[in-house]
């Protein structure tokens, strides 16, 4: 590698292509013609943004998705296979890049390298390891525009939604960078016999953690689990989706720039049904985010190999508007909850439950705010909502809506593709009259679709929220927070936010986050979110009286002494 190439690598934080590596090749963006931004409302002519008006020249010029190249040059994943999959830019439908398929030997090498690096890494002090991620925190904020462009081009989401990923990873890096030394320090535990047994709990890294991630949050999901796993002293092998591979490689480079040792964070790519099981089989612990069906397969494979796993799976989340709620605030919250990342977020609300006394006013406000959303392929903050990720996702979303309407649901707004904006754009949609036999009543749509249901009292609201098999997230809107908390405790969901869509609970990094029932097992965030990646060990030192009768001591006499000691300990509250 030349000196100039080395400077480029350090500046971009990426691996340049090596002769022995199969290149991850970004495709030159293809210019395309489309209406830049448009209101979501069906049949309304697109209005110019304030910054686009001839009389208003404030603010930056719009940046279309075709105006900025993928900031990777020629990055590399060590793959020996010739096969690759073409990643598609959702904004245009044009090829974005070619992602290699890693073979069995590539997976072996990735895990071997991560395991070797982890052995050296775990020998470093915990504060030294944590310091790497506090540096990473600052670097990510400084270089956010690079990866924001990349996230948008891989996923098609609006920039405001891509920025949520920056915030998530930054908060995670700061939380564990500061708290990990305390969370992982040896802790004194009460021994078998008070004062006579000194017991300490210590934690060791597991080895190498496998992280298998979907396409919808390529930065956040690649790193939210990896950061605590790495700080705990493990290596990580990340298997991103084809539509998130560029972002994962970019993150790998920035981690190295922050001081993470070479080889410790590996990226492997390929078909999920081929590479995924291999990653699980090689791992000492695995984290998976994705569908419930695939999560069950991951859990079964993890069980076969006797390793632990964390699964964050789907959701059919409810947003509840009580009879004392501020209608306008609740409608604004519903827009955020239902249409963030075009609804391609496991914590998004798809069921909006509204008290009958607020139903009509809420529906009007919710509809008006939904129709006012601006859709567009914009590499800046001018668009409110971006695209769906693929043609398959578009077909699935539209199919659910067509099924509901055919069975009698009322389409309030939306319900149609917007090909003039880009091949996979779909209008944010509201339906009423959705019933049990309609697929979107019980299946996760994973798109910008909200079904609004009336309810008459809290009991009915809780029953509706708890119906179905999922239990990931819920949202309660009320003018009395204490009432919202009480109702929230009756909902079988891993997180519940009061007067907020989902970010309040998710961003509370000191508290556990995860799902109940079919929405997953185990938790990320908080103490659980780092202890998952460790093996607990108990060290006990017995002083004075042993716990079993010494040789030569009458068993009855010893049993009497121990019995008296146990009764005394109970009386003393020990």
Give a summary of the structure in a few sentences.
The chain has 574 residues and is an alpha/beta fold. Helix content is 39%, strand content 20%.
Task: Tell me what you see in this structure.
Residues 44-70 are annotated as: Disordered. Belongs to the aldehyde dehydrogenase family. This is Succinate-semialdehyde dehydrogenase (NADP(+)). There is one protein chain. α16 links the parallel β20 and β21. It is globular, with a radius of gyration of 26 Å. It is of the alpha/beta class and 574 residues long. It folds into 2 domains: 101-312, Aldehyde Dehydrogenase, Chain A, domain 1 (3-Layer(aba) Sandwich), CATH 3.40.605.10; 317-512, Aldehyde Dehydrogenase, Chain A, domain 2 (3-Layer(aba) Sandwich). α4 crosses α5. Residues 1-62 and 66-75 have low confidence and may be disordered. The protein is built from 19 helices and 24 strands. A 7-stranded mixed sheet has the order 16-17-18-14-13-20-21, sandwiched between helices. Strands 10-9-8-11-12-23 form a 6-stranded mixed sheet, sandwiched between helices. The protein has a 4-stranded antiparallel sheet with strand order 3-1-5-4, with helices on one face.
Report the CATH C-level class of the largest domain: Alpha Beta
CATH superfamily of the largest domain: Aldehyde Dehydrogenase, Chain A, domain 1
How would you describe the shape? Answer: globular
The biggest beta sheet is recorded as: 7 strands, mixed
Provide the domain count: 2
Strand order of the largest sheet: 16-17-18-14-13-20-21
Oligomeric description of these chains: single chain
Considering DSSP H and I runs of 4 or more, what fraction of the residues is helical? Answer: 25-40%
Structural class: alpha/beta
- What distance separates the N and C termini? 66 Å
Percent range for β-strand residues: 15-25%
CATH fold-level name of the largest domain? Aldehyde Dehydrogenase, Chain A, domain 1
Q: How many H/I helices? A: 19
List low-confidence stretches: 1-62, 66-75
How many whole angstroms does the radius of gyration measure?
A: 26 Å
Judging by the overall fold, what is the CATH architecture of the largest domain?
Answer: 3-Layer(aba) Sandwich
Average predicted local confidence, pLDDT? 86
Family: Belongs to the aldehyde dehydrogenase family.
GO molecular function: oxidoreductase activity, acting on the aldehyde or oxo group of donors, NAD or NADP as acceptor
Protein name: Succinate-semialdehyde dehydrogenase (NADP(+))
Domain Aldehyde dehydrogenase: 83-538
């Amino acid at each position: 590698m030349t000196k100039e190439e080395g400077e480029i690598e350090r500046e971009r934080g990426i691996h340049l292509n090596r002769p022995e590596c199969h290149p991850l090749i970004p495709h030159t963006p293809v210019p395309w013609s489309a209406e830049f931004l448009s209101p979501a409302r069906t049949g309304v002519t697109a209005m110019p943004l304030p910054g686009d008006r001839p009389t208003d020249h404030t603010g930056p010029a719009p940046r279309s998705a075709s105006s900025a190249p993928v900031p990777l040059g020629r990055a590399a994943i060590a793959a020996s296979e010739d096969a690759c999959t073409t990643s598609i830019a959702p904004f245009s439908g044009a090829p974005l890049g070619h992602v290699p398929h890693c073979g069995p030997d590539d997976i072996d090498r990735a895990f071997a390298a991560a395991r070797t690096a982890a052995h050296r890494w775990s020998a470093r002090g915990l504060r030294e390891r944590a310091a790497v991620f506090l540096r990473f925190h600052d670097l990510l904020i400084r270089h956010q525009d690079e990866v924001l462009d990349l996230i948008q081009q891989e996923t098609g989401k609006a920039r405001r939604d891509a920025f949520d990923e920056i915030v998530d990873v930054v908060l995670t890096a700061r939380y564990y960078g500061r708290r990990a030394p305390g969370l992982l320090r040896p802790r004194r535990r009460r021994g078998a016999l008070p004062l006579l047994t000194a017991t300490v709990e210590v934690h060791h890294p597991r080895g190498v953690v496998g992280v298998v991630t979907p396409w919808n949050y390529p930065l956040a999901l690649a790193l939210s689990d990896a950061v605590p796993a790495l700080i705990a002293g493990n290596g990580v092998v990340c298997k991103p989706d084809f539509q998130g591979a560029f972002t994962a490689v970019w993150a790998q480079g920035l981690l190295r720039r922050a001081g993470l040792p070479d080889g410790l964070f590996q990226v492997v790519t390929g078909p999920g049904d081929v590479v995924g099981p291999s990653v699980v089989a090689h791992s000492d612990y695995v984290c998976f985010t994705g569908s419930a069906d695939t999560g069950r397969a991951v859990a079964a494979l993890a069980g076969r190999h006797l390793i632990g796993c964390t699964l964050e799976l789907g959701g059919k989340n409810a947003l509840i508007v009580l009879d004392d709620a501020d209608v306008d605030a609740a409608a604004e919250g519903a827009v955020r909850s239902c249409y963030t990342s075009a609804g391609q977020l496991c914590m998004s609300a798809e069921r909006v439950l509204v008290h009958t006394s607020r139903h009509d006013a809420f529906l009007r406000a919710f509809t008006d705010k939904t129709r006012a959303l601006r859709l567009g392929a914009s590499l800046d903050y001018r668009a409110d909502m971006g695209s769906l990720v693929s043609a398959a996702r578009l077909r699935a979303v539209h199919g659910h809506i067509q099924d509901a309407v055919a069975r009698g649901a009322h389409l309030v707004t939306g319900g149609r593709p917007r090909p003039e904006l880009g091949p996979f754009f779909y209008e944010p949609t509201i339906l009423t009259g959705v019933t049990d036999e309609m697929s979107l009543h019980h299946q996760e749509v994973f798109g910008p679709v909200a079904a609004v249901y009336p309810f008459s009292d809290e009991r009915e609201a809780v029953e509706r929220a708890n119906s179905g098999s999922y239990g990931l997230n819920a949202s309660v809107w009320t003018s009395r927070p204490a009432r919202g908390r009480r109702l929230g405790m009756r909902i079988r969901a891993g997180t519940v936010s009061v007067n907020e869509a989902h970010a309040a609970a998710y961003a509370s990094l000191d508290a556990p986050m995860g799902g109940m029932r079919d929405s997953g097992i185990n938790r990320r965030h908080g103490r659980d979110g780092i202890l998952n990646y460790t093996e607990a060990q108990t060290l006990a030192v017995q002083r004075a009286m042993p716990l079993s009768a010494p040789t030569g001591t009458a068993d009855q006499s010893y049993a009497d002494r121990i019995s008296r000691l146990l009764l005394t300990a109970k009386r003393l509250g020990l």
